[in-house]
Specification:
mainly beta; Immunoglobulin-like; about 10% helix
Length: about 290
């Protein structure tokens, strides 16, 4: 950001140009703040929940399925494409045999107190790079929590993050473990700058533990939810291809084309949780 400020023109005779530049910077800061506060949870308090209820449900697909997103394997086929399929699934929409939608993030909105952040699932805080895919595809890391990363592949990968976290971490050797603390809540996009342009994942850095990722049957569950009425949100990454953007392979020093996806979608429902009682909320989503 300092670099952006330093690049502002200083031509006194072109005052209007300077005003436009400052307006663009102000807009950038405004958009950043909106994105950061979208996941913010001011004053969440950890308490001992003695009479909590449960919330469970499913996310199901309705209607025709969109065409699957495959991308050509253009680098390291012996590692990235051991079955010689020539293409790989971008994993942006995973629907099971019973129409369950996997990889949907479901969370309680504006909950002020409850159980500890450590109750988030540990496997969602560890990233592996295997056969040139990020595993898991959706990560959940508590605010100020640690994300650990490694690569199982014998090729250069990078974990390039942008959004609520900005890192670009190389993994030149298999099983090299690296870690970073995620200090800002929000959405983080993960991409590889090692030429494996199809690699993509999403991470949510979250301010409370009432977040879940649906499994292959579309199911989710929250336990120890304090009694009250909440908004339950289902979030899914964009599953269509919006275009391509130019990227840079740091190993070959060549320009490559990376897929760009459509914006995420969200759905909301109200739920009332009673002491020691179960509640059920189901979402039905579609391509509309």
């Amino acid at each position: 950001m300092l670099d952006l400020l330093q690049r502002q023109p200083v031509l006194e005779e072109n005052g209007m140009h300077r005003i436009v530049q400052r307006s663009v910077l102000l807009t950038f800061f405004t958009v950043f703040l909106i994105a950061a506060t979208a996941f913010a949870q001011d004053g969440y308090k950890v308490v001992h929940v003695t009479d909590g209820g449960t919330i469970s449900g499913t996310v199901k697909w309705s209607g025709p399925m969109p065409r699957g997103l495959d991308f050509p394997v253009t680098k390291d086929p012996q590692i990235c494409d051991p079955d010689n399929k020539k293409t790989t699934d971008l994993e942006r929409l995973v629907v099971g045999p019973q129409a369950g939608v996997a990889n949907t993030v479901v969370y309680l909105k504006n909950i002020s107190s409850g159980k500890a952040l450590e109750d988030l699932p540990a496997p969602r805080r560890h990233l592996d790079q295997k056969h040139c895919h990020y595993i898991p595809h959706i990560l959940l890391v508590p605010e100020n929590g640690v994300l650990t990363m490694q690569s199982s592949d014998a090729t250069l990968h990078t974990v390039h993050m942008d959004g609520a976290a900005t890192f670009n971490l190389p993994f030149p050797f298999p099983n090299q473990v690296n870690s970073r603390t995620m200090s800002t809540p929000g959405l983080v996009h993960l991409r590889c700058n090692g030429g494996h342009v199809w690699m993509n994942a999403e991470m949510m850095v979250v301010p409370h533990p009432y977040y879940a990722v649906t499994d292959e049957s579309g199911q989710f569950e929250f336990t120890d939810v304090p009694p009250g009425t909440y908004q339950l949100v289902a979030w899914h990454e964009g599953w269509s291809l919006a275009g391509k953007e130019q990227a840079y392979d740091v190993l070959t020093e060549r320009k490559v084309q990376r897929p760009v996806f459509t914006e995420p979608k969200t759905w909301q429902k109200s739920v009332t949780v009673n002491a020691n009682q179960p509640s059920t909320v189901n979402f039905v989503i579609s391509n509309k």
